[in-house]
Amino acid sequence: MPETTRENLISGGWKDLEFGPFRDGVTIHWIKPFENDQPGVALLKYDAGAGVPRHRHEGLETILVLTGTQSDEAGDYGAGSYIVNAIGTEHSIWSDTGCVVLIQWDRPVTILEAE
For residue 88, is it within any domain? Predict the structure, then answer.
């Protein structure tokens, strides 16, 4: 099984991991699924043009962009960007180019718009 160490992920080791369905155009590799009210940690891989509809953060969310560019209403975040979304904030996410992000959620988000 490929390693999920920081060094391996930053150097492209995520390419050797198995991703499964998450949302249309977005796949997921769980490093640590949500369990017993504990945070979840995963890699999300966005196809070019894919996104996640407007949603509200029910807990703290942190994101490290590993490759490509992830965007929201506040701007574009390229590889190496570290994003913190506080409890109660709302936004939608998209990637024009495609991207891979390392994400940690304290709690699942609430989708506010129909997909």
Answer: yes
In this prediction, residue 34 carries a pLDDT of: 85
Please state the rounded mean pLDDT for residues 20-43: 92
Residue 13: strand, helix, or coil: helix
Taking Cα atoms as reference points, which of 73, 57, 74, 61 lies closest to residue 101?
61
41 close to 14: Cβ distance less than 8 angstroms: no
Domain that holds residue 11: 6-111
Place of tokens 């959620």: 105
Query: Which helix or strand (DSSP H or E) is residue 9 part of?
Result: helix 6-10
- Contact between residue 100 and residue 68 where contact means Cβ atoms under 8 Å apart: yes
**Contact 22/96 with Cβ under 8 angstroms?**
no
* Segment 68-95, tens digit of pLDDT: 999 999 999 999 999 999 999 999 999 9
